[in-house]
Amino acid sequence: MNVDGLAPGAAGLHLVGGVALLRPEEQVFEAMLDGWRNQQLARNLALSTIEKREGRLRAFGEHAEAFPWQWTPQYADEW
């Protein structure tokens, strides 16, 4: 464990304590995409690959008009 109590390589909290999010769903979704992008960069994937994947995910989200935690198999069938 590090001095801050996290295991090596663990992600830290990106929010300030006691502060309410203005648009929590959008902010959580963006944080998820940032984490996913970082994971792909760590795997040394090409930026073009990462951008295409992110673009498809955003397009699917617009089609579904919902956030990922609200997606159902029906959205994929319609896509």
Overview of the molecule:
By secondary structure, the chain is an all-alpha fold. The protein has a domain of 55 residues. Helix content is 54%, strand content 0%. The chain starts with 23 loop residues before the first helix and ends with a helix. The model has no long low-confidence stretch (mean pLDDT 86).
Q: Which features does this protein show?
A:
mainly alpha; single chain; flat; 79 residues
Q: What order do the helices and strands follow?
A: HHH
Give the tally of β-strands. 0
Mean pLDDT metric? 86
Low-confidence stretches: none
| Largest sheet entry | none
Query: What is the percent of helical residues?
Result: 40-55%
Q: What is the 3D form?
A: flat
Beta-sheet strand percentage?
Answer: under 5%
Continuous helix count: 3
The CA-CA distance between the termini, in Å, is 44 Å
> Mind telling me the C-alpha Rg?
16 Å
User: Could you say which structural class the secondary elements and strand pairing correspond to?
Assistant: mainly alpha
